[in-house]
Amino acid sequence: MIVFSDLYYDMHYLRYRKGMSGWKRLLWWMPGILMIAYTIGLASIKAFAPQDVRWLNVYLFLVGILLVPKFVMAVCSFLGWQHCKFHHTQKNRGNLIGPVLAVVAAGAFLYGLTIGPRRLEVKHIDLYFEQLPASFEGYKIVHFSDSHVGTFNHNMDNCLRRDIDSIKAQHADLIVFTGDLQNVAPEEITYHSDWYKELTNGGHTKVMSIMGNHDYSDYMRGPRKEMDARVQKHEALQRSLGWDLLLNEHRIIKRGKDSLFIAGEEWEAKEADDTTNYVNRVKTYAGIPQQAFVITLQHNPLYWEDHLVHGQGIPVPQLTLSGHTHAGQISLFGMRPTMLSYKEDYGLHQLEGKYLYVTAGLGGLVPIRLGTTPEIAVITLHRLKK
């Protein structure tokens, strides 16, 4: 993006303009050179991303005002130039269209950087099951995911405060968190740990959680001893919030004579992925009766359908709650980038009477949202009368 734009304008316009000395052309290249240096600096961070996300925010802002408009105009001009060559015309209409599209693109980018991540939608979903135990009619679950709290620290604290208050306002029977509490380091959690503790309502509200790919040390490499220590610190911090962290294990929730099971799986990945596989499904579901009503928490929704079809004797959950995709963070005309790699990348999905809900999440390492609003899902369970 950086090199193409500057190189195109330099080769097609600047070098042919009268009075355009080498120094003036260098000034044209200077913002791009500085952005390349900034990019290299961010890419060289050992921790995968800066712990102070303000460095990333400044970088993205500069991309929006410097690189995006220039790139859009260069592409339009290039296409117009090719059109002129093919049709043997002189007027490059790309130079007329380019500035308009550049303003639109820059405006959309800056909206996605400044306003989009600060919005919130509380989505209410009613689900009906024949197998739901009678005592759990109307059972309310608040599902949130992908807080990426480091993105809120120092920058969007008021938004996180609003999100916590919105969760509390639902007066749920159960709150579940499906992974990615941090960006890269457990220290991020300490800034607002007191706010997250409020979700338990002094121990009166159950909060169950699992870990996502960012909660492990796969993105912050180092000696195995250090990586394991970071994971253990993260686990300890989650438990210090009063949350019941499920690491390939399950819990029984009882109401009267009835019960249901919450199964918490660790991060699941295949050999081709760039992260480690931590899931142990045999351990997670050991002891759960085949006919039990099971709600599964799994950060990654990618393998949901495979597990329904190839259960291998493991109880099949009636409801699976996931996150991870952030609904692509960008959606244009209903098209999201995550749709290319995830069949169920966002929203409610049903297969053979079993449900999967993939939430858009609250945050993201890269704080951009355009067409996909951060959300909290309020899921109410109902018994379907036969």
Spatial sequence of strands, sheet with the most strands: 1-12-2-3-4-5
The total count of helices amounts to 10
Task: Give the structural class.
Answer: alpha/beta
Biggest β-sheet strands, sense, barrel = 6 strands, mixed
- Shape verdict: elongated
| Rg value | 25 Å
Query: What ranges have pLDDT less than 50 throughout 5 or more consecutive residues?
Result: none
What is the architecture of the largest domain at the second tier of CATH?
4-Layer Sandwich
Number of strands: 12
Listing every helix as H and every strand as E from the N terminus to the C terminus, the arrangement reads: HHHHEEHHEHEHEEEHEHEEEE
Please, how many domains?
Answer: 2
Question: Strand-residue fraction?
Answer: 15-25%
CATH superfamily of the largest domain: Metallo-dependent phosphatases
Give average pLDDT, whole number: 90
How many angstroms separate the termini?
Answer: 59 Å
GO molecular function, one term: metal ion binding
Protein name: Ser/Thr protein phosphatase family
GO cellular component, one term: membrane
Organism: Segatella baroniae B14
What does this structure look like?
The structure is a single chain. With 386 residues, the chain is an alpha/beta fold. The protein has two domains: 2-114, no CATH class; 122-383, Purple Acid Phosphatase, chain A, domain 2. It is built from ten helices and twelve strands. The strands form two sheets. The chain has a six-stranded mixed beta sheet, with helices on one face. The protein has a six-stranded mixed beta sheet with strand order 6-7-8-9-11-10. α1 packs antiparallel against α2 (22-43) and α3 (54-87) runs antiparallel to α4. The longest helix is centred in the N-terminal third of the chain and has 34 residues, at 54-87. The radius of gyration is 25 Å and the shape is elongated. The mean pLDDT is 90.
